[in-house]
TrEMBL record:
Name of the protein described by the UniProt record: Response regulator
Metal-binding found in the keyword field: no
Domain Response regulatory: 4-120
Taxonomic superkingdom: Bacteria
Record keywords: Phosphoprotein
UniProt lineage: Bacteria, Pseudomonadati, Pseudomonadota, Betaproteobacteria, Burkholderiales
InterPro entries to which the protein is assigned, alphabetical: Bact_response_regulator, CheY-like_superfamily, Sig_transdc_resp-reg_receiver
Originating species: Pelomonas cellulosilytica
The keyword Isomerase is annotated on this UniProt entry: no
Residues annotated with 4-aspartylphosphate modification: D53
Amino acid sequence: MAKTIMIVDDSASLRQVVSIALRGAGYDVIEGCDGADALRKLTGQKVHLIISDVNMPNMDGISLVKAVKQLPTYKFTPIVMLTTESQEAKKAAGQAAGAKAWMLKPFSPPQLLSVVQKLVLP
């Protein structure tokens, strides 16, 4: 059975690039256009990993991480921040909120898949 990964980014083109890479590697993908949209789509189904941008309208990535960690079903779901933000303070805030990894854009699909394979829940 395919593992499910949620991608959260306000850029449709970035969601598409990530989605193509993940689907090509055999994953199922759920897309969210911002943190609020992503939370609405977490309806109890198994999600093995969440990949989220940091800077988004409505609800940013770090707020999303905090919100997801409050949900009993998703408390242990690993979250990767995929962002242009490279400031240590942002990284520290992401880690404090519960993010497992921090990847910088632009990224290569093989690099992304390598991180996904290390973090995806069994």
